[in-house]
Amino acid sequence: MKTSQAFFMAFSSLVSNKMRAFLTMLGMIIGVGAVIAMISLMDGMIDYTMGSFSDMGADTITVSLMGKGSKVLTDTQMYEFVDTHEGEFCDLSPSSSLQTAVRFGDQTMKNETISGVSESYAIIQGLTVSSGRFLAYADMLSRSKVCVIGTYICNELFDGADPVGKSIKIGADNYTVIGLLKEKGDSTKYSMDDCIYAPYTLIGRAAGSAQPFGYTLKMTNSEQSTQAQQELEDYLYDFYHDKDCYMVTNMASLLDIMDDMIGVMEKILVGIAGISLLVAGIGIMNIMLVSVSERTREIGIRKSLGAKQRDIMKQFVIEAAVLSTIGGGIGILIGGIATTALGNMIGVSCSPSGKAIAIAFGVSAGIGLLFGYMPAKRAARLNPIDALRSE
């Protein structure tokens, strides 16, 4: 029997039992759709998470000073450390912070965090201004009362109008806005656009400390982040002789940990979705066994007319494969639609993953062949005489 004839007979059998075929395919449709949606959404979440962490500086190391001990690490000492470790670090920004009210006219924002940074902070974090300029070295030396704000602050205080050149009140002092940053988040509270940057030399003193609260260092090569972190930790330990006096955070290491955790979660979700594909395969095997029982007489007639075992096996294996492949195709379509819809609901840009589609379609076709083999083998081994006697 030609393969084309086997496909024609498979389609004829499915058409003659539409409801049973649909109910059998339903498990495959749900399983394939779930696999595609889960993998694609997880890929979208990974891209979103990694992008968010990368925006925070994947090639940066942050040092937080705990304020313990009698020794004080000055900004001059840290700049000297960077200069002597050019192979590991290429830039540095001391940091300090102040939490206070910010006012402009009748608009007041309570408990806003003012970040004291250096002129290098924009380069380290990849910040760009849409209007005006960023902080300069001269602002650090003169402790100029100037600031750069994000789009969220601009919208809240200035209703989105250009703020450059205007004066805002930070605590009890007046600061001139010299720059407006380009939007990096969604211009909402607690996003990356909810920020005010001022000279660290000024903010530190306003917060009651002559020295920075911490440092942000940009690595020369993020692929050698472990070595750079070790060099920094060795220097800090030699200075303080107490690990409780500081905390070092390596963004590259955090990204690796996050990637591993998300990878494990993805495998668990795919495993759960794979169970539904297994159940769908069992359903296909059951329905094919029923089909063999119902068509025993037909098999006997075909065998008596000269059909060989391989012809009978081919017919039923192809029928099972067609059943699962059609279900898989519908599942791919539904999974793609579900991915886009769910991505829009959670606010993450997601599209059907080519990897997920390939896996789902391959598994659905493979399940059809695997679970269709047993019923096909049983049909092929039927004795023609016994089959013809069947009612």
Could you list some keywords that capture this structure?
elongated, 58% helix, 18% strand, alpha+beta
Q: Low-confidence spans: pLDDT under 50, at least 5 residues?
A: none
Q: First CA to last CA: what distance?
A: 25 Å
Helix content class: 55-70%
User: What is the SS-derived class?
Assistant: alpha+beta
Q: Give, in spatial order, the strands making up the sheet with the most strands.
A: 2-3-8-5-7-6
Biggest pleated-sheet summary: 6 strands, mixed, barrel
Radius of gyration: 33 Å
Helix and strand run: HHEHEEHEHEHEEEHEHEHHHHH
Number of strands: 10
State the oligomer: single chain
Shape call: elongated
Q: Strand content of the residues, in percent?
A: 15-25%
Mean pLDDT: 82
Summed up, the helix count is 13
Structure description:
The protein is α+β, with helices and mostly antiparallel strands. It has helices spanning 3-16, 18-55, 75-83, 121-125, 137-142, 151-158, 200-206, 225-240, 251-294, 296-304, 309-346, 354-380, 384-389; strands at 60-65, 89-104, 107-117, 129-132, 146-149, 167-170, 173-181, 196-199, 214-219, 246-250. A six-stranded mixed barrel has the order 2-3-8-5-7-6. A hairpin with a 2-residue loop joins strand 6 and strand 7. The mean pLDDT is 82.
Summarize this entry quickly.
The protein is of the alpha+beta class.
